[in-house]
Design brief:
This protein is an all-alpha fold. The protein contains four helices and no strands. It folds into two domains: 1-56; 65-114, no CATH class.
């Protein structure tokens, strides 16, 4: 959905540029597109600010396990979780050594104390 929205915004920016370029020239059309984009970003920011004011976080009991807190975070912040997973996947594809070291750390665990 986010990729589709990004493609639509870029297509609308090109359409706006093509529509105003004959009248205002290249520089004027670029300025109008930049202004429209800034206005769109400001509107989205205000909408997100208004939407976030209604949510209040619950106090986390002291005895909760880390896995339960992690699952609650995934339920409350799905977009952030997906973005982190995609970033981790891209990092793993570009540098498989990092992924191997992380897997090794989980499998081997901590060395025994002497």
């Amino acid at each position: 959905m986010a990729a589709s929205a990004a493609v639509c915004v870029v297509a609308l920016a090109f359409a706006l540029y093509a529509a105003v370029e004959p009248r205002f020239g290249r520089a004027g059309a670029a300025g109008i597109v930049a202004g429209a984009t800034a206005l769109l970003v400001a509107l989205v920011a205000v909408a997100l600010l208004v939407a976030s004011r209604g949510k209040r976080r619950k106090a986390v009991p002291a005895g909760r396990k880390a896995l339960d807190r992690g699952l609650d975070f995934v339920r409350e912040q799905p977009v952030l979780t997906i973005a982190a997973a995609l970033g981790t996947g891209l990092l793993a594809v570009r540098n498989p050594e990092y992924l191997g070291s992380v897997i090794r750390a989980f499998v081997e665990g901590k060395p025994p104390k002497r």
